[in-house]
Design a protein that fits this description.
Number of helices: 20
Largest sheet: 6 strands, mixed
Distance between the termini: 75 Å
CATH class of the largest domain: Alpha Beta
Strand order of the largest sheet: 12-11-15-16-18-17
Number of strands: 21
Helix content: 25-40%
Shape: elongated
CATH architecture of the largest domain: 2-Layer Sandwich
Radius of gyration: 36 Å
Length: 540
């Protein structure tokens, strides 16, 4: 509380940046702008500012009579909603023989910039004015310096013996600082941890970041710090549960377990039919993409929440639901180009541990990996206030009918020719092609076209050899089968010729004319386009 003597000193103070004197009593805009400017404290003096009504600039009193109505009007400035964040201020009336003074004392804000009706005001010497862009940026940076993130705060219920300090030493301090520096550090472990914001020496408690990363039983102190994994038989949570588990522990334990879960249970690979003479391995999801999404969820989650990180497998898609929506500068309209960190200490440690890169390239790389694997782009729900949701659908090449990219089986039944092929080939040709397919699939010695060409074992001629033997080249009719069945995505002439192991002129003059109505061109209006590519009609 300011005394009368202090007010008299302020009347003649030369510290004009924190004192504004006026004889006016009715200019409420001017008063609120001045209070806003004092709250911003651009000079970072950390001293209170004073708006003094009833005095001239030279410090003499104007003989003002401060009424209760005037006092109420100035007091109302604090909470009328025009100045945000709400300023910390007090208002007092002082009586002198020469007249009254009304003094509004304003404390510097810990959450600048403070704005009056959307505009930021600052003190420039003896006056106030609207802040320039650079000045407002200084205030914004200062705001961040006053805010302690949750992971940097001490967890008062935790003691040092609740932290695996050996794990912290070997997994974090040495990679972060170097073995030589760490081994030569003779300070107590508490001080070493404090140097990297893992311990509060004043309160004698590890920080929440230390508990998350290295705690023996972090869930005792943060009940939501685990991953709930559920595999459902159907398409939603009402369907039958096939498998369920809870993965918990500090991040040095949890993150490797998540990677193992992906490798052993979530990511599945199988051979799929490409053509009657070839098969490839297909994956339901690209490992790196799902790993990136899970690790990002661990990094950005709200560790204060009691809700676990949910990783759900459904028949045709995978869902990651995370407590905590977008944070800080990461707004829905800026996602994913702008990133921010709710848990900067945890994020930095995960980078040191080798789990994330913090280059803000994760989402883009995820989408690229999904596309290359035949998955649709990941769907991000960034409009949830208290959560963040990601949905990824299974690869079409993995789930296509009969297990193959083009509808065929790997082993078992003879693959049926598609209706499109039946229209390309005559009845006799179709019969011969089906026979060739049956023989090729049933053959255990020769699995691919390349293997057939490379084989040197003498044997009785079979229908596979008629197709693939170098002694008799594949006919244009047979080649048409393979091209139409295999090229479900855009392929160039060079790619087709390489696959067929034939000259481009043969492909162009003998094969493609047979498929004129079954192949579409990427540049239909320019048939001879230098980058022309072809794809079977109806394929995607």
């Amino acid at each position: 509380m300011t005394t009368k003597d202090e007010i008299q000193e302020l009347l003649h103070s030369t510290e004009t940046y924190r004192v504004e004197r006026t004889t006016s009593t009715g200019d409420m805009d001017k008063f609120q702008e001045a209070i806003c400017a004092f709250a911003n404290d651009l000079s970072n003096s950390r001293k209170n500012g004073y708006l003094i009504l009833g005095a001239y600039d030279n410090g003499t009193l104007a003989g003002l009579k401060v009424t209760d109505d005037l006092l109420k009007k100035i007091v109302a400035i604090r909470s009328n909603g025009n100045i945000l964040p709400i300023p910390v201020m007090s208002v007092d009336r002082f009586q002198f023989p020469e007249g009254d003074l009304l003094v509004a004392e304003v404390s510097p804000s810990d959450l600048p910039p403070v704005r009056y009706r959307g505009r930021t005001f600052i003190r420039i010497g003896p006056r106030h004015d609207i802040a320039m862009e650079a000045e407002e940026r200084i205030l914004a940076e200062r705001r961040m310096s006053f805010i302690a993130t949750f992971d940097s705060m001490p967890c008062l219920a935790v003691k040092l013996n609740d932290i695996n300090t050996d794990l912290l030493h070997t997994k974090y301090l040495i990679p972060l600082l170097g073995n030589e520096l760490v081994e030569s550090d003779t300070r107590p472990i508490e001080e070493q941890m404090a140097a990297v914001d893992m311990y509060d020496t004043e309160l004698k408690s590890p920080t929440y970041a230390a508990v998350v990363l290295f705690g023996y039983k972090p869930r005792r102190f943060m009940p939501g710090l685990y991953v709930q994994y559920v595999r459902f038989k159907g398409e939603d949570v009402t369907s039958e549960v096939e498998n369920e588990m809870q993965l918990e522990g500090n991040y040095c334990e949890l993150l490797p377990r998540l990677e193992s879960l992906l490798e052993l249970s979530v990511i599945k690979n199988k051979p799929v039919f490409v053509s009657i003479l070839r098969e490839e391995m297909a994956s339901n999801y690209p490992y790196q993409a799902i790993r990136e999404l899970l690790l990002n969820a661990c990094m950005h989650r709200d560790i204060q929440s009691n809700t676990p990180l949910r990783f759900y497998e459904f028949a045709s898609h995978r869902e990651i639901l995370n407590a905590g929506g977008l944070y800080g500068n990461a707004r829905p309209e800026k996602f994913p180009s702008v990133n921010d960190y709710r848990n900067p200490l945890v994020a930095s440690a995960m980078k040191t541990l080798g789990y994330v890169n913090m280059f803000n390239r994760g989402v883009g790389q995820v989408q690229t990996d999904l596309k290359e694997n035949g998955n649709q782009p990941a769907e991000f729900n960034v409009n949830l206030i208290t959560a963040f949701k990601v949905d990824v659908k299974v690869s079409q090449s993995y789930t296509n009918e009969n297990g193959g990219k083009n509808g065929g089986k790997v082993g078992g039944d003879v693959p049926r020719l598609s209706p499109a092929l039946s229209q390309v080939l005559s009845p006799d040709e179709e019969k011969d092609a089906s026979t060739d397919a049956k023989d090729a699939i049933s053959s255990s010695k020769v699995a691919t076209l390349d293997e057939k060409v490379a084989s040197s074992e003498p044997k009785v001629a079979t229908s596979e050899e008629k197709v693939a033997s170098p002694k008799k080249e594949i006919s244009s009719e047979e080649m048409a089968i393979y091209i139409l069945e295999y090229y479900s995505t855009w392929r160039s002439m060079d790619e087709i010729a390489q696959f067929a192991n034939r000259d481009k002129n043969f492909i162009r003059n003998k094969v493609l004319p047979r498929l004129a109505e079954k192949l579409e061109k990427e540049y239909p209006d320019v048939p001879n386009h230098p980058r022309q590519r072809y794809r079977a009609i109806g394929r995607s």
